[in-house]
Design brief:
The structure holds 2 protein chains of 2 kinds. Helix content of chain A is 69%, strand content 0%. Chain A has 9 helices and no strands. In chain A, helix 7 crosses helix 9 and helix 8 (168-175) packs across helix 9 (179-206). The longest helix of chain A is centred in the C-terminal third of the chain and has 28 residues, at 179-206. The model of chain A is unreliable at 1-15 (pLDDT under 50). Chain B is mainly α. Helices cover 72% and strands 0% of the residues of chain B. Chain B has helices at residues 4-14, 21-33, 35-52. The model of chain B has no long low-confidence stretch (mean pLDDT 95). Classes of the chains: A mainly alpha, B mainly alpha. Chain A binds chain B through residues 35, 38-39, 42, 75-76, 79, 114, 117-120, 123-127, 130-131, 133-134, 140, 143, 161-163, 167-168, 179, 182-183, 186-187, 190-191, 193-194, 197-198, and chain B through 3-6, 8-9, 12-13, 15-17, 35-37, 39-40, 42-44, 46-58.
Amino acid sequence: MYAFLYNQPVIHYCLPVSMTAAADFHTIIATLRPRLLGFARLQLRSAAAAEDVVQDALLAAMEGAERFKGEAAFSTWVFAILKNKIIDEMRRARRTKDDIDAEDALDDALSALFDQRDHWVDMPPAWGDPEASLEQKRFWEVMDTCLTQLPKSPARVFTMREFLGLETEEICKELAISSSNCWVLLHRARLALRECLNVRWFGETAS
Amino acid sequence: MISCKHATELISQGLDRSLSLAERLRLRLHLFICIGCRNTLRQFRFLRKALSQHPWRL
């Protein structure tokens, strides 16, 4: 699948002067591709679906590549195309029985955080200086584990909001859900992520 | 007084829409007395900040 992109001779004719050297262009794609794939995989949860959207995005980007001077503008543009392709893919994805079971399990786990009067069973502790974690590679591995553990529905709405930067109204429209449903899903995703990071990262560093 | 669960709902929604004056007052009063929810507020905001700096982002 990759070879197809690298061995595509036609693309060189439509590239701007700054990008005409085949080697340059291959370098740009080669550095960009892992990030695009990582970004897509985290959101689509399927390596195959991620490969597909990234391939589509790169091909679409190449068609208009002559309009872009330099690597930064081209990268931004590829990324914008990829975002739209990811949204299309998310809109298409249907929930399976497993997804629904995972959502029920999450609801139970989140309900258990609160007592009968809906107050915390265990007060969330402070995280000290959480920003310091952003510099640590291991933190991002834990973050990705926590994101991947979210069931599909909350994960989809959360990543559309926080990764793709959509407003809740746009998310509701794309997924054909009500805004209150959207808020419920975002709340669940945040509670679950907070809990997961608390257990897997901040609990360890604090103790 | 609103519950912690409801407070976390308002904290979360406050990141996605503007809360009404009544909601803001209820939340502020709750946060005043509840350290667990104050931590949650900081941590929900941190989640947003962290995700905006995710290494896969461009």
